[in-house]
Known about the structure:
The structure holds 2 protein chains of 2 kinds. By secondary structure, chain A is α+β, with helices and mostly antiparallel strands. In chain A, 40% of the residues lie in helices and 23% in strands. Chain A folds into 2 domains: 70 residues; 138 residues, Immunoglobulin-like. Chain A is extended, with a radius of gyration of 25 Å. Chain B has a single domain, classed as Cytochrome C Oxidase, Chain A. In chain B, helix 7 runs antiparallel to helix 8 and helix 13 packs antiparallel against helix 15. Chain B is globular. Chains A and B meet through helix 1, helix 2, helix 3, helix 4 and helix 5 of A and helix 3, helix 9, helix 10, helix 11 and helix 12 of B.
Amino acid sequence: MMLNRRRQTAGRVPDIAARIAAVAAALYASVGHAEWALNFQKPVTTIGHVQYDLHMLILWVCCVIFVVVFGVMFYSLFAHRKSKGSTPAKFSHSTKAEVIWTIIPIVILVTMAIPSTQALIRMEDTTASDMTLKVTGYQWKWRYEYLDHDVDFYSTLSTPRAQIEGTEPKGENYLLEVDNHVVLPVGKKVRILLTAADVIHAWWVPALGTKKDAIPGYVNEIWVYIEEPGTYRGQCAELCGKDHGYMPIVVDAVSEEEFDAWVAGQKSG
Amino acid sequence: MTATTADHHDDHHPTGIKRWLFSTNHKDIGTLYLWFSFVMFIVGGLMALVIRSELFMPGLQVVDPHFFNQMTTVHALVMLFGAAMPVFVGLANWQLPLMIGAPDMALPRLNNWSFWLLPPAATLLLISLFMPGGAPAAGWTIYPPLSVQGGMGVDFGILALHMMGISSIMGSINIIATVMNMRAPGMTLLKMPMFVWTWLITGFLLVTAIPVLAGAITMLLTDRHFGTHFFDPAGGGDPVMFQHIFWFFGHPEVYILILPAFGVVSQIIPTFARKPLFGYTSMVFATATIAFLSYIVWAHHMFTVGMPLTGELYFMYATMLIAIPTGVKIFNWVATMWRGSMTYETPMLYAIGMVFLFTIGGFSGLMLAVVPADFQYHDTYFVVAHFHYVIFGGTILGALGAVYFWLPKWTGHMYNETLGKWHFWLTVIGMNLTFFPQHFLGLAGMPRRIPDYALQFTEFNMMSTVGAFLLGFSQILFLTNVLRTIKGGEKASDRVWEGSEGLEWTLPSPPPYHTFVTPPQVK
C-alpha cells in the first residue's frame, strides 16, 4: 500500500510540472492512507513500559489542568464582556486564592516527582546485566561490538540513493533500513555502552524506551530488557553533520537460541 | 535628579539620514530597533520556509542536507538574536521613559551604539552563508566537536554573536540605569508598571548571562584556531563542558525572551478588562523567582549526556519548581479577566492568545522536565513544538500585541481594526497548524534537525508546511497595517483605550520628540 502510493510520487524528470503533479498525488494519496501516529511507538522493554505509563500520567495531568484553567478563562471571556453589560469588579488581590493556587501545583508536582524518581532510579541501574553491547557513533554509521561474544561490525544505511533523490519509489522502511542489523536476545538484561569517534551522536530506538548521547571521550551506559521478539527501528538523535538524517539503527530481537546461532554464524563468517 | 524646563532644553534634532545614524533619542532608536527586528523576523521566516519546503515530502527535493543544516542553524540565530531580543529592546526604548516619566534613556549615546552594532552583526551572520563551507551548520547550540569542523562561516557566526551580545549587554545596562535612576518623583519600585518590572529583571539576566555565552564561544574560537583543547577529548578537553556553559547562558536566555512578553500581557489585559492587574506584588515576586530559578536548571537541556543519577534528579526537581511561579502568573492573568468588562480589540486578542498558547508550551515544558519521559522526547520534534509554542506563542505574540497596543500612541493614528483581527486569526491558525502536529511527530519518533524522514511522518509534515506558509504570508497584513497607520488613519486620542492606565497615556498621541522634560509627579 505504502509502496504503491510512493510510486505515484516518483518522477525521473525533475521539472516543475512533474513536481506539482507529484505533490498533488501525494496529498491526494495521503488522505486515504494516512498513518497519523499520535503517540509513542509501542514500548517493548521493561523500562519502556514504565516510561510510557509515566508519559501518559503527566499528559493526563496536563490535560486536566488545561481544561480547568482554560475552562475558567473562556467562561470569563464569554460572560464578562462589556457588550453583555458586565461592569468591572474592583478587587485586585486575594491572599487566600493566591495561597491556594500556589499550594495545589506544589502537591501535583510532588505526586508527579515520586513516580518519576522511581522510574529514573530504575532506568539508570545498569548493574547485573547478562551481556554488554558497545556502540560507537561515526560520521555517519554505527559500530557494534559484542564484548562477551567477540563479534564486531559496522552498520550503515541501506536505502538506495535513488530513493532519496526520488528517481525510484521509496520502500516501506525508507531511511530506517541498514546493511547489518543489531541482533539482541529477548528476556536478557543487555547493557549498552555508548561512545563516539568524531562528534556527538545519540543512539535512539523509540520502542526500546531509552536514548543516550554517544560522546567522544565518554562512555555512557543504558540497559534494555526486550520482552517481545521483533524488528525495532530508530535513528541518530543528535545533530552530527551532513548525513545526520541518514544513520539509522535496526535492532532484531530474537530468542536466546536464535541469538546463539546468530553469534556462531558471525564468528564462522 | 534636576528638572530642566522645556524652554531651555537643547533640542538636538538632526534630519534625514543623520537623524537615524546619530540619534540619541529613545523614540528614534526604539523605532530603529523595531524595524530591524521586523526585517530579521522576515529573513528568519524565509529560512523557516526553506526548511518547511524541504520537509513537505520525504526525499530530498529543495536543498542538500548541508544547506538544510545551515538553514536550521541560521534561522534560529536570526530569530533569537536578530528578532526576538531586539524587538523587546525596541519596545523598552520607546516605552520605558514614557512609562516611568523620564525624558530619555539614562545613557543616550550608549543607546545609539548598542543599536548600530546590530546591523553589522546581522550582516556578518548572513554573509557567512556565502563563505566556503557555508554558514554555521551545527545547530544554534553550536555544540563541539561538530562546530569545530565547520568552515570560516562558523567564525563569522561567533563574531556576529559576540557583537550582538555586546549590543544586548549595553542595551540592558542602559535599561537598568534608566529604571533605577530616572523614575518620576513618587514612582517607587512597587508602583512601576509590570512591563518596567519585567524589563528590569530581564536586564539583570542579560548582563549576567551574555558574558557566559561570550566565554563559551571564545573558547570555541580558540579551539578552532589557536590550538587549545577546551572541548576536545583528544587533548584532555571535554565536549560536555561546552554544553554546561552554553546552557548556563541558554536557559536564562529563554526567560530573557519571555519575561518582557509577560510584562506586555500584564499591561494589555488590565486595560481591556477595565480592571486592575490581579496580584501585582505576587506578579513581581513570581517574575523574580522565575529569573532566579532560570540560573539553576540549565542541565535539563542535556538530560541525555549521561549525568549522574543525583544530578538528573536535582535538575528534574528544580525544573519542575518553575511551574509554580509560572502558574501564579497565568492564574493572575485569568483572575484579572475574571469579572472584568472585557472588549476584544487586537492587542487583547494577542494577549489572550499569548496566555493560551504559551501555556501549552508550558505544559510540554513540564513533560520535558520529567527525566524518564524526556529520554524519549529529547531531540525530537516534540521539543521543536515545545519551544515554538513558548517563543512564537509567547514572545512573538506578546511583541505583536505590544505593537498594536502602543502603535496609536506612537503614530497618533488608530490602526485598522479589521485588518488587525484578520492578522491575529491567520497568525494563530497558521501557528497552530505549523507547530501542533510537530508534537505528534516527535512522540511518534521523528528526530529534529533532519532534512529527510521515514514515510510514516509524511502527513503531519505536510500539514506543518502548509501552516508555515500561511503563518509567513499572514505577516504581510501586519506590515500593511503598520505602514498604513504610520501614513494616516483615524486620529488617536491621548488615552487611546478606554481602560488605559499609566503615564504614557497622559502624553499627546503622537508624543512630542522630547517628553517629560519636567518629570511628572506620581501620587
